[in-house]
Specification:
The structure is a single chain. With 529 residues, the chain is an alpha+beta fold. Strands 1, 8, 9, 10, 11, 12, 13, 14, 15, 16 and 17 form an 11-stranded mixed β-sheet that branches. Strands 4-5-7-6 form a 4-stranded antiparallel β-sheet, with helices on one face. Helix 13 packs antiparallel against helix 14 and helix 13 crosses helix 15.
């Protein structure tokens, strides 16, 4: 994949138009997805599966292409007016699914409703946290004011989905789920949704990119990987995401199936909870081998965190769980991203040194803890979790692995119910500030920084560097600061990277698809040959 190029101020890039081929407009498409949306309100959650599903119905203000390059979306151009103000010019002649025109009022309404409708993971606050005001200049011009300089605001707006300002101001997830408020400008309009089941959509004629090639699209949630592949082979679905790597060779032998492989933005990361208060229920789960609660949190000791990292055979996981298609992760995001170190210091696998560090920290016999992860969010999540449990056992740690459905895992994780977790993180904007400010920076009230810091990790010097980078408009200086912060974070083991995932789709041989780094499966871009 081409390296990420920071294009925040190049908003005049021409939009590609995708005209549907003649004769293709009456077809239907069924897509098997590992995880569908959590609701139909696009502002409810920031989870990748949620955003990917709803991007079929709601357009973002700024588009991002398959290589994480920012492109015109509902905004056709953008520019900084001053250090804390960005101006966005909006696309003319765009209409919502109810026929009403898209204007600056809809952008203002959408941004301002985000804090009041956020779900269990904080919703889209992660993208709007720096915004202090939205000013309408005219129907097709809007200015967004931030409390500090934010060079990445156009990147943030790639996940800012626009809803109609004509819906009831107090509309929340139930109104969207029923369809009453599910009014977007996307290439498909909402028909119906069954939680953990089917999301049915129909073509929206006159979409600004051109008509979609499918009259009707159904996202069929099939969380079991084998069942999803079986659904493709049995014609239950025409296309499927998150194909297990173990099935790639078999599917490639099928004459009627095409396989599409690409790089992913998702990295599995281990998040030890560094809270000091051992009276919290989650922290009481950390015990000695006899089940006695410890008087202090061992994860607060850097030597213990380093031991966890040294115990992880990243190359072994990449090979055994992902059959060599995953990439060893030596930092918190893929190396090609803006602000990542292109040549990070390798994280070693050294179980002998891990045991020595545990003894040095006062745990010569190890200790016991449960490790929690999702079982149905990303490919290999449960298997990677199980592998970690086995690897930690080799250095004397007694680990109970708990792989849970995402609907159980993520809300509990957000509440702080678990002492250590493993989950995938996708740097959706393609630049380091998104990750560093979200889960490395100390957690702050109001959600501007540390919104996803489930580790309760806090390093004031690191925070200072992250904040300086986030407020720097000079790209070269910002990249340098992000790389410094990234190296510091990895060296302190507050969060521990494991592997970066592959991403694999499969579909009928008469379909074409360009793999996306963000893993979004977008029906508009699945094309008949």
């Amino acid at each position: 994949m081409r390296g990420f190029r920071f294009l925040a101020r190049l908003g005049l890039v021409a939009a590609a138009l995708f005209a549907a081929p003649p004769g293709a407009l009456a077809q239907e498409l069924r897509i098997g997805v590992r995880a569908g949306p959590e609701a139909i309100d696009p502002h409810y959650m920031a989870l990748g599966n949620h955003a990917a599903a709803l991007k079929n119905i709601f357009d973002p203000l700024v588009w991002v292409d398959e290589n994480l390059q920012v492109q015109p979306g509902l905004a056709v151009s953008w520019r900084p007016v001053n250090d804390t103000t960005w101006e966005f010019k909006l696309r003319p002649n765009v209409r919502f699914h109810d026929g009403s025109p898209f204007t600056a009022a809809d952008v203002k309404f959408s941004i301002e409703r985000v804090p009041s409708v956020a779900g269990p993971d904080g919703g889209l606050v992660i993208y709007t946290r720096s915004i202090v005001g939205v000013d309408i200049v005219d129907d097709l011009t809007i200015r967004i004011r931030t409390n500090v300089p934010n060079a990445a605001l156009p990147q943030d707006m790639t996940r800012m989905f626009i809803v109609s300002s004509r819906i009831a101001p107090d509309s929340k997830a139930p109104e969207f789920n029923s369809g009453r408020a599910a009014i977007g400008t996307g290439p498909f309009r909402f028909v119906s949704w069954t939680p953990r089941g089917d999301l049915v959509m129909e073509r929206f004629p006159g979409h600004w990119r051109g008509d979609a090639p499918w009259s009707r699209v159904t996202l069929v949630e099939i969380s079991n990987d084998a069942a999803r592949v079986a659904g493709l082979l049995s014609n239950r679905v025409d296309f499927a995401n998150y194909v297990p790597v173990s099935d790639i060779a078999r599917l490639k032998r099928e004459r009627n199936i095409a396989v599409f492989q690409g790089e992913s933005i998702y990295t599995f990361i281990l998040y030890p909870d560094l809270r000091e208060d051992m009276s919290a229920p989650a922290m009481r789960m950390i015990t000695d081998k006899q089940g006695n609660t410890l008087s202090r949190n061992p994860f607060r000791d850097r030597r213990v965190r380093e031991a966890l990292s040294l115990a992880i055979d990243r190359a072994g996981i990449a090979q055994s769980v992902f059959e060599g298609t995953a990439v060893v992760a030596d930092q918190l995001m893929p190396n090609y991203m803006f602000g990542a170190n292109p040549n990070p210091q390798p994280l070693r696998y050294d179980p002998a040194r891990a045991r020595a560090l545990l003894a040095e920290a006062g745990y010569p016999n190890g200790f016991r803890f449960p490790l929690y992860c999702s079982s149905d969010r990303l490919p290999g999540d449960g298997a990677t979790c199980a592998a970690l449990g086995q690897l930690f056992a080799r250095v004397g740690l007694d680990v109970q692995v708990n792989a849970q459905p995402r609907t159980v895992f993520f809300p509990a994780r957000t509440r702080g119910d678990y002492p250590i977790t493993m989950a995938g993180w996708g740097t959706l904007t393609g630049e380091a500030g998104y990750a560093l400010s979200s889960f490395v920076h100390c957690k702050r009230e109001g959600g501007r920084y540390g919104a996803f810091n489930v580790s309760h990790y806090c390093n004031e010097e690191l925070d200072r560097i992250i904040a300086e980078a986030m407020g720097t408009l000079d790209d070269a200086k910002r990249r340098e600061l992000f790389q410094k912060a990234q190296d510091m974070a990895v060296a302190d083991y507050g969060q521990i990277p494991i592997v970066t995932l592959p991403t694999v789709w499969a579909g009928r041989a008469n379909l074409t698809w360009t793999p996306r780094a963000d893993e979004d499966t977008l029906a508009f871009f699945i094309r008949p040959r």
